[in-house]
Every structure is written in C-alpha cells, then in structure tokens.
Amino acid sequence: MIGKRDISQDPTLELFPSPDQFDDNFQAFLEEACLKLCDWFSKAEETGPLPSINDLPEVGPKFAGLSRKDLLKDLDLIMNGSFQPSHPGSLAHLDPPPLSASIVGDLICAGLNNNLLAEELSPSLSRLENNLCRWIAQKIGMKTGSGGVAASGGSLSNLMALVLARHHSGLSTDPNAVILVSEEAHVSIYRAIKIMGLPAEAIYKVSADNSGRLSINSLNEQIAKLKFLGHKCFCVVATAGTTIRGAVDPIDDISDFCFSEGLWLHVDASIGGVFSLAEETKSVVPGLSRADSITMNPQKLLGITKTSSLLLVANTNHLSSCFSIGFPYIEPSWGSTMNGGEMGMQGTRPAEILKLWLGLRQLGHSGIQALLVNSIERKTYFKNRINSDIFEIITGPLHLIALTPSAITKEQAAEWALSTRQLLMDNKFMLSRPLLNDRYYLKAVMGNPHTQNSHLDQLSNLLNQSI
What we know:
By secondary structure, the protein is an alpha/beta fold. The protein contains 13 helices and twelve strands. The strands form three sheets. The protein has a seven-stranded mixed β-sheet with strand order 1-7-6-5-4-2-3, sandwiched between helices. Strands 8-9-12 form a three-stranded antiparallel β-sheet. Helix 9 (251-261) links the parallel strand 4 (233-239) and strand 5 (264-269). The longest helix is centred in the last third of the chain and has 31 residues, at 353-383.
C-alpha cells in the first residue's frame, strides 16, 4: 500500500502522516528534530556566527530509505555546518535571528502543504494573504484599493514591479524602453532588466549625493536627456534603504517628479519598508505611501523566516490586469479578488504569508516598535564609539553603518578590510566587506536583538585598535 514502509531499519515511521489516526511516531520524529533545533540555538554563543565544521552527509538516497535515527544523524551534520544568525556577533548582513512564532508558522506551512496558486487549494490562506497585504499597505498609508502579493524574495518582488510598470506604461513590446535608478540601487534591478529582455543601456543611472540619496537635479537632467534622445521611460526606481549605508532616497520629491512626468514610481523598500509599520519610526521613510509599487522584506529585520517578501501596489487591479492569463484547470476565486496565481509571476506558491502573520501577531505593535527602534539605537551607540578621526563613517537613518580608514589609499583599505574582517571573525564578530565607489568598507547591520552594548563596546575597540 502506498505510504507504508516495509523496511527493517525503522518499520514504525510511515512515509506520510496518517489521515485517519494520530501518528505517534511522526510526533516523536518532530519532537526529536525540534529538540535538535533548540539545542542548536542554545549553543550559538559557543560556536560563533560561522561554523568550524564542514562535513556533509552522503547526498544521494540509498536503495532503502533511512530510519528516523539515521535521518536525524544526517540532519545533525547539516545543522552543525550552518550559519548561526542568533550569535550576538552576527552583524554582517540583513539576516536576523528567526522569531519563534515564525519558525512554527514555517513548520505548519510545510505540514499544510497548501498551494496559493488558487483559493480552492488554500481557502483560508489565500484570504489571509489578501487581507494581510491590504492591512500592511494601508498601515503604510496607501489608499483604499491598495494591497499586494507575497513573493519568494525581494529580487522577485522588484522584477514583478518592473514588469507591472512596463505593462502599465504600454511599453511592454518596446525594446527601447528605459528606467531611471539611483547609482546606489540594488543589483536586483539590473538583473530584472536583463530578465525582461532589455539591454543594460535601458538603465539610466541617476547620481547620488554625498549621503547616498538620489539627486533630484540629476534626475531632471536625465529625463531631459532621455527626451532629447527620444527614449521612453516607464519607471523611476527609488530606494528606501540602500544596501551598504541604508540611505533613503527623497521619495516625496521623486513622487512629485513622477506625477509631473506621468511615470510609475517603484520604491525598493526591501530594507527600510518595515520602519513604516511603527509610528515612532515611520518618519525615517517619508513619502513611502505615495509609491505606485513597493517591495518590502519583513525577513530582513522583523525575524520572519525566509523567505518573506511582499510586493505592495496602490491599486491591486493592476496586478491582475498584468499577470492574469487564466487557469482553465482551476476554479475561479470565491471572493472578490483573483486567485493568487493570477496576481503575480509565481504559480505554485507555499503559504509563506502564514509565518509573517503569526510572527506579527506574536510581536504585537509594541514588539514591532521595539525591534525597529532598538536597531537604530544600536547603530547610533556603535557609531558614537567609532573613532571618527581615523575612520570615514557612512550611514543613513536606518540600522546599517559602514566604515573605512580615512587616511590610507584604496589599495591599503582593501588589505585592511580583509585582515580586520578575519581579526573580527577570530573574536566571533562577523561583518561584511562591501565595495563602494571602488573602495572597501566593513559594514555592520544592527538588526540582531541579541547584540548588547557590551558586544558593541568590544567590537568598536577592536576596530579602533585595527589602524
């Protein structure tokens, strides 16, 4: 019978959980796996951000399936060789520790195995996605009719936004269509243009000022240049939280520009968008609600397990008009919205909205506010302890900060960044080593709630003594 395991190694573990009785052995398997995960979390302080173990189990399956004991043994090897975001010194990237409720949401999502392609395949979860995206859009300040769709990562959200903007402009078949972006825009914008079949020349870079913010004067110069050349622009991409310094473009001014020129405004707020969810921090991303589309990644600061990205739009009708081609094998949605598979580029999708919803419910407004405020406070505390006489420090209003020695050459800065990063790793601090304007920096992202002031004191001392 399908589902039964007749193997001597472990005849008690069924291939699939039983549909008609409580499965004690499946429960035991889950409990043992969860105990291993809890043990892995508890030892984060000992191991540091990166593991010292690189052993991997055998990759291919054996002729007979493994027993529960052997499966867990293999799992041990993978876990012991994994990056540890819960370590207080894990400050390199936008990868915070996971919320406990979000972990459970991920587990339940996998167990339900619903498909957000269609409402008939995910009845409660499709409605949950529609309602939560609408709630977040309106929490940001977007008007009635706004909403969105979840996507597997910010790169996909940005790609969908640009496809949507191009469709809305009527330039979907124009090979000469172009976009305007800041020179500090994320690399996913460049990848999206390539996927859309447009040449690299379709991206017109707009200069950034000394703070890393898009220059309105440069924007006006570039649109004049485009008109002179006869090119048609279908979108301006603003950024709320650049990757290296966390700069936020002047979205209000860019929105005024887009309105006057009749252009779609997309804001890549993968990093900074969540700050609009709390009254105490929404001022760091002003004007966000005026965008036609927004990418937001709750995974980057709120601890929602990967992946958690949203494409929010001012008018959800634009999503269906762009992406819907019909599913002759799927029943129509029961509600007022389209099936999820007709609201974006993905067809089959897991119910990732569950872990976002459960995580936000666990946090509450006070918890969301605390995570956001504390991340900025950690950045400020750290910045005040870096010797500004010997370092060039670049940062924005968010929780990212980067630094490089100010009195050495670019070549020397590259050597310093490499050797100092290793020094920090030896002391269980992990910072990243980005390249900006042909110069290497060390970057810290202060989104780890386990990082205390005592850790930042130690980190700043190591950096100040590295010159």
